[in-house]
Amino acid sequence: MLKPYLPFLMVLALAVINAIFMLGLSHTLSAVLKTRRLTPTKLAPYESGMPVLGDARDRFSVKFYLVAMLFIVFDIETVFLIPWAAAYQQQLPLRGVLLVEMAVFIVILAVGYVYVWKRGALQWD
Amino acid sequence: MSISPSGSALQSRFGAAVTRVVESCGDTIAYVNRDRAHEILAWLRDDPGQHFNYLTDVTAVEYRDAERPLEVVYQLRSLDRKADLRVKIELAKREPLEVDSVCDLWKGANWLERETFDMFGVRFRGHPDLRRILMWETYSEGYPLRKDFPLRGHFSRAEQTRQALAGNPEAHYSLEELSIAEAFHELPADMRDRLEKGERGKVG
Amino acid sequence: MGLSPVPAPESRAELDAVSPNWVTTKLSALINWSRTRSLWPMPFGTACCAIEFMATAASRFDLARFGMERQSFSPRQADVLICAGRLPFKLAPVIRRVWDQMPQPKWAISMGACASSGGIFDTYTMVQGIDTIIPVDVYVPGCPPRPEGLLYAILLLQKKISGEILTDTALREEQVLGPHGLFLPPSKIDEVSEPFGNSVHQTRSA
């Protein structure tokens, strides 16, 4: 059953072997051949030639996380709509039931959407 | 060309504090006393007939003739009336070079006065943060634009290079000052509100 | 916090002991060929010479055909530091730090009169030649130099790199600041910064 996919598997294996070979070769070669001329200034982070000020670990705004979470939820809702649409097209006698079921599903998510909207989570600033 | 009405208005309002008003190449220059200078400049900004709301420049002049006093020059402009005025304060070189700061009148005077201090050594009383701006803060050779300062500086080139390489340009700043997120609670209240509401580009 | 001097580098006795032979010569030739044909510049452009540098990099004179396709504004991925423009004393620790942060092999081109000698600015603000701060390989005269001048400098640098020998470890030593916080000895700096020409008349005051 999976026989047509065999060439694909071979290409995948070749790609993985090739990547490991190239990365490994460059890594080990550079570790062996490199010169070690390190000075304290050379090791310091680059800040346009200025002495280093502070930590690079800043706080991120929570809005990025919120947007990502909301996207996941509504994207999955969209994903569920697609097979439903295929089933809806094929099942002629059950159309009424299918429609009501999906409507309930969308209404539940719409309530959540209105809540998110009113709470201001969609405000970027 | 004649003296602008601001010059005559100054003389009639402040009398002897305005030592003289001259006209040169179309510009009106008013020489004022150091003691009442701040009051005069405040009047020039606030009086409805004058309304010099834009401070173009603060600088100083030292003339080639050693007998002439050092002058602190304020270049004013009225944006509504489209009029200019130059106000000068003469300072005798033998006395300490001190003038009242006008940062409370025009916010832009902050850096302009720092530059005048850096280049001429004129101290501005009441300035919130008077330190060097063009040269580095620990610059110890003197005040470069004074006439007794040689063009190549006082120290040898090697010493200048050594001091320059040892300098730390950002020593004055703390991370809180450089990062607005950290210093948010120290900003003025109206700026905090604006940033919180997310308004951008709103003027006035 | 300044630029700290560094202890003496470890000895590369094994490499120094190898005498140049057929293998090292051919290897040198290959390495130098690849280095000269892919010099990534770090444009340390401060003033007018930077405009001429941009003109050289643009289509009419095109730096990309010399391998300088990617101009690296981070020293980490740059091969040659091109200081284009005058350098104030305030900027001296910056260029020194940027130079220190470039990994070996690295070269420097001093572009223009101001970077090479201080130019017309023999004043209290300007470094009298960046070679008092970093080691320079090629100097380009001009105020500003024509693009052809900068291209000639790059070709000269390529010629210099082609003459490098693989077994010469002294070439790739980090030239750090000395114990007195300077790159050159103080007498040397004073000697190369002596006024000449019109500057002789500008040492007076009042």
Task: Summarize this structure as a short list of keywords or feature phrases.
heterotrimer; A: 125 residues; mainly alpha; 68% helix; B: 204 residues; alpha/beta; Beta Polymerase, domain 2; 5-stranded mixed beta sheet; two-stranded parallel ribbon; 6 helices; 7 strands; 26% helix
Distance between the termini of chain A: 53 Å
Strand order of the largest sheet of chain C: 1-2-3-4
Looking at the chains present, what oligomeric state does this protein adopt? heterotrimer
Low-confidence stretches of chain A: none
If interface size is counted as residues with C-beta under 8 Å from the partner's C-beta, which chains form the largest one? B-C, 26 and 33 residues
The share of residues in extended strands of chain A comes to under 5%
Radius of gyration of CA atoms of chain A, rounded to a whole number: 27 Å
How much helical structure, as a percent, in the residues of chain A? 55-70%
CATH topology of chain C: Rossmann fold
- Along the chain, the helix and strand elements of chain A come as HHHH
The major β-sheet of chain A equals:
none
Overall outline of chain A:
flat
Number of helices of chain C: 7
Query: Over the alpha carbons, how many angstroms does the gyration radius of chain C reach?
Result: 18 Å
* Shape category of chain C: globular
Summarize the structure.
The complex is a heterotrimer of chains A (125), B (204) and C (206). Chain A is mostly helical and 125 residues long.
Can you walk through the features of this model?
The complex is a heterotrimer of chains A (125), B (204) and C (206). Helices cover 68% and strands 0% of the residues of chain A. With 125 residues, chain A is mainly alpha-helical. In chain A, helix 3 (63-90) runs antiparallel to helix 4. Chain A is flat and about 80 Å long. By secondary structure, chain B is of the alpha/beta class. Chain B has a single domain (5-147), classed as NADH:ubiquinone oxidoreductase Nqo5 subunit (Beta Polymerase, domain 2). Chain B has 6 helices and 7 strands. Chain B has a 5-stranded mixed β-sheet with strand order 1-2-5-4-3. Chain B has a two-stranded parallel ribbon with strand order 6-7. Chain B starts with a helix and ends in a 7-residue tail after the last helix. Chain C is α/β, with parallel strands linked by helices and 206 residues long. Chain C has a single domain (34-198), classed as Rossmann fold (3-Layer(aba) Sandwich). Chain C has helices at residues 13-17, 22-36, 48-57, 92-101, 113-117, 147-162, 186-192; strands spanning 41-45, 80-84, 107-111, 138-140. In chain C, strand 2, helix 4 and strand 3 (107-111) form a beta-alpha-beta unit. Chain C is globular and about 60 Å long. Chains in contact: A-B, A-C, B-C. The A-B interface holds A 50-51, 53-54, 58-59, 123-125 and B 168-170, 173, 175, 178-179, 181, 197-198.
